[in-house]
Amino acid sequence: MKLNGTKKDKIMKEADKTQVTFSSNNIRLSGLEWIITAIICSTLLCLGPQFWGRLEKFDPGDDYRLPYTLGNDYWLYGRNCRWACSKYDTLVVGDSVIWGHYVSADDTLSHYLNQNTGKKRFANLGVDGFHPAALGGLLRYYGRDISGKNVIIQFNPLWMSSAKHDLQTEKEFHFNHPKLVPQFFLKIPCYKDSFSKRFSAAVERYVPFFGWASHLRIVYYDNMDLPNWTLEHPYKNLLAAVTLELPASQDNLQENISWTEKGIAQEDFQWVEPGQSLQWRFFQQTIELLRARKNTVFVVVGPFNEHMLKPDSYKTYQKMKSEIETWLKQNNIAYCIAPVLPSELYRDASHPLGRGYAMLAKLLFENQSFKSTILKVSGN
User: Fold this and answer.
1) Reading across the β-sheet that carries 90-93, which strands appear in turn?
2) Do 116 and 365 touch, CB atoms closer than 8 A?
3) How far is 145 from 152, CA to CA, in rounded Å?
4) Taking the C-alpha atoms of 178, 181, 183 and 185 in order, what is their torsion angle to the nearest 10 degrees?
């Protein structure tokens, strides 16, 4: 049977009325279903991180330090801060020198401070690879629980040893932990990330859900997003990878030999003056932040391997160290310029070996400012 044009058009119009007015999808939700979905997502967004903190076991124990492989897990660092603040009265904060890059967890500065005290008072909140700009952001956004405590914060002069380390080169430089530095309001010349990455980093600081999601990715999915992880592990169960067990605080041990045995030569560092240094400026802001949170702050400058410096670099460093000390005095900040350790107790420019940490802890206990500020012992 052949339809004429008019009848055919009429049938087509009737068929069009039966078509859905939007594009096809596998799942279409009703208004009520959208409301239920929104409630579930909002609950997960708000309560997910808090619930996970109860579900995932975290019992660090003595001499705990954040595992080397989890250095980018800021959500876990915040959790560690809460735990440490509940157990210890003094927190030791800094970069890999405090963390103990070349030594075991029971060979670090915090360990020997506890040993000298005779009880567990000092917690290791150092993180490997954290320069002052990143450490400031870490404490500001993920260390909010550090309030009303004793805080020993270490400043490593190595971060001022060149314009590159000081983040002042105009050429793009991919430094550690860019998510933690100021994203918009303080220009870092070498930081060239796109607006979208900067915005994402800024949002993550204030929305715990995103930090928690990053934690899951780092701990359970080899620091990959889910699509890439499933491509790499096509036959593994996505949910089975979540074991609820955190990695142990493994040591990042390397050759336990001195810098001279390693064959490291003396260097002529191109120091950045404190008045021009970005890293020193960030460190000053971090001290102000800690004091504003009612913490008792004690600054340790160094230790630094002055044996490694060539003559001109040594002279410049002494001048720079003097300027740092002057600022600390002017701002009434308790401090200790770490004495120079014997050459054989350094692994490189700034990291002591185990015996070096033991000596540094002993020297701190002999420092009058340390005794009166941290140990609360009055001088004779």
Assistant:
1) 122-124, 90-93, 150-155, 296-301, 334-337
2) yes
3) 15
4) -160
Q: Whole-prediction pTM value?
A: 0.86
**CA gap 288, 298 in Å, rounded:** 12
Return the domain boundaries, the chain. Answer: 76-373
Q: Could you give the CA distance from residue 43 to residue 312 in angstroms, rounded to a whole number? A: 61
How is residue 167 written in tokens?
């983040």
Helix (H) or strand (E) holding 62: none
Over the Cα atoms of the chain, what is R_g?
27
| Tens digit of each residue's pLDDT (9 = 90 or more) over 8-38 | 565 555 655 555 555 555 567 677 766 776 6
**Kindly report the CA angle at 152 between 150 and 153, in degrees rounded to 5?**
135
Residue 327, judged by CB atoms within 10 A of its CB (0-12, 13-18, 19+), counts as middle
On the CB side of 175, CA atoms within 13 Å amount to 27
* Under 8 Å between Cβ of 129 and 96: yes
Task: Give which of 110, 128, 126, 125 is closest to 71, Cα–Cα.
Answer: 128
The HSE-up count of residue 298 (CA atoms within 13 Å, CB side) is 22
Say how far apart CA 348 and CA 288 lie, in whole Å: 30
In eight-state DSSP terms, residue 298 is E
Give the pLDDT of residue 380: 45
Element (H, E) at 335: strand 334-337
Would you say residue 359 has pLDDT above 60?
yes
Does the pLDDT value for residue 289 go beyond 90? yes
DSSP state of 361: H
What are the phi and psi torsion angles at 336 (to 5°)? -145, 125
Percent helix, percent strand, percent coil in the chain, to nearest 5: 50, 5, 45
Cα separation of 45 and 51, whole Å?
A: 11
CATH class of 76-373: alpha beta
Give per-residue pLDDT as tens, 95-112.
Answer: 999 999 999 999 999 999
